[in-house]
Write a structure and sequence with these properties.
The complex is a heterodimer of chains A (177) and B (180). Chain A has 177 residues and is mainly α. Chain A is built from 8 helices and no strands. Chain B is built from 5 helices and 2 strands; from the N terminus they run H-H-H-H-E-E-H. A two-stranded antiparallel sheet of chain B has the order 1-2. Chain B is elongated. Classes of the chains: A mainly alpha (177), B mainly alpha (180). Chains A and B meet through helix 2, helix 3, helix 5, helix 6 and helix 8 of A and helix 1, helix 3 and helix 4 of B.
């Protein structure tokens, strides 16, 4: 993500002055990262909505382009918008039943079962812990980037991750027994 | 594992989970606590969870991001705005048409209350007091019947008023200062 940072910031700064061409370039550059961010935060049964969530993110970003502050980091700004989109989607359509992560591959049935159980356990976490885990471990964001995307302090992210891992350990132990 | 060691381990686990390379930080922690079976269990479970989360990430990263429709994005926004504006205009036109059809007047001419429709003689809500006859020194007067409310009833002597007697005016009384 860091390699994209400078060009993305420049493109967003131009897009903030209503340069459609620059915004199109930005969408092309950062679109895949935003898509995977949406994928990581959506419920496994709703991951087909990732493209819609990404489109909505960019539409909102375009409408809010005047509020972008150069030097603030375009990708982080976009991920913050994406996070709001995803939160609203989760609130609008809460999901109880869980689908599989991906179709299990016959070669590694045990691993797939464990990963499916883990995905289920992640969904059972409180919202803040789930978001922190998804940012940190499903997307590999740093604590600072996670804090920016979630709109919380870095200390909150650290505490949420620690509590989440503790809860996951307990939940996975419970599933194993 | 005593409480102090557990708290120490928790603090170090929290630090490791906040590191940029979580797996490497947990490996280092595992080496440090190699001689403590309780601690190594906790660190080992955490490493397994983190490794499984990394595997989930790999599965997500393998997903192909569909193309954005680069050129269509800003145009799509413009078309959406146009459609929204047109829909809002139609809705406003319908609302005005419904208003005009119901009131028979365009919205600019607000309905005015017709004064002519008011009853010409509205009941005023009061009436003349009752009159009773009072005889005094052979004269008969018609005076309003006074009623003292029960709540403030008091002896008649304390009412403090009397019917005035008006003596016939004389020329001396009328111009008392003229004698001097």
């Amino acid at each position: 993500m860091d390699r994209q940072r400078r060009p993305a910031d420049d493109l967003m700064a131009r897009a903030a002055r209503s340069d459609r061409e620059a915004f199109g370039d930005l969408a092309e550059l950062v679109g895949p990262a935003v898509y995977r961010f949406c994928l990581a935060h959506l419920h496994p049964a709703r991951r087909d909505e990732a493209d819609d969530a990404r489109q909505e993110t960019f539409l909102r970003a375009w409408r809010a382009r005047k509020r972008f502050r150069p030097g603030g980091g375009a990708t982080g700004w976009l991920l913050g918008i994406a996070m709001n989109v995803l939160r609203e989607r989760r609130r609008r359509r809460p999901t109880r039943a869980l689908g599989g992560l991906d179709p299990p591959s016959p070669a590694r049935p045990e691993t797939d079962e464990r990963l499916g159980a883990l995905a289920e356990a992640v969904e059972a976490l409180p919202d803040r812990q789930r978001e922190a885990v998804a940012c940190r471990f499903f997307r590999g964001l740093s604590v600072a980037q996670t804090a920016r995307a979630m709109g919380v302090a870095e200390g909150t992210v650290k505490a949420a991750v620690f509590q989440a891992i503790g809860n996951l350990r307990r939940l996975m132990k419970g599933k194993a027994e | 594992m005593n409480d102090t060691t557990r708290r120490q381990l928790d603090a170090e686990l929290a630090d490791a989970l906040s590191a940029d390379d979580v797996a490497a930080a947990l490996d280092a922690l595992a080496r440090r606590y190699a001689g403590d079976p309780d601690a190594i269990d906790a660190v080992g479970e955490t490493r397994r969870i983190v490794a499984d989360l990394a595997a989930v990430r790999q599965a997500l990263d393998a997903a192909e991001a569909p193309p954005m429709g680069r050129a269509a994005l800003p145009a799509g926004i413009r078309w959406r705005w146009i459609v929204h504006a047109a829909a809002a205009g139609v809705a406003a036109a319908i609302a005005i048409a419904v208003y005009v059809s119901r009131t028979g007047a365009p919205p600019s001419s607000a309905p005015v209350l017709a004064v002519a429709s008011k009853p010409a003689e509205a009941p005023l809500g009061w009436r003349l007091p009752e009159v009773r006859t009072l005889s005094l020194s052979g004269e008969t007067f018609r005076v309003p019947a006074l009623a003292v409310p029960v709540q403030v009833a008091m002896p008649s002597a304390a009412l403090g008023w009397t019917v005035p007697t008006i003596p016939a005016a004389t020329s001396e009384q009328a111009t008392p200062d003229n004698d001097t």
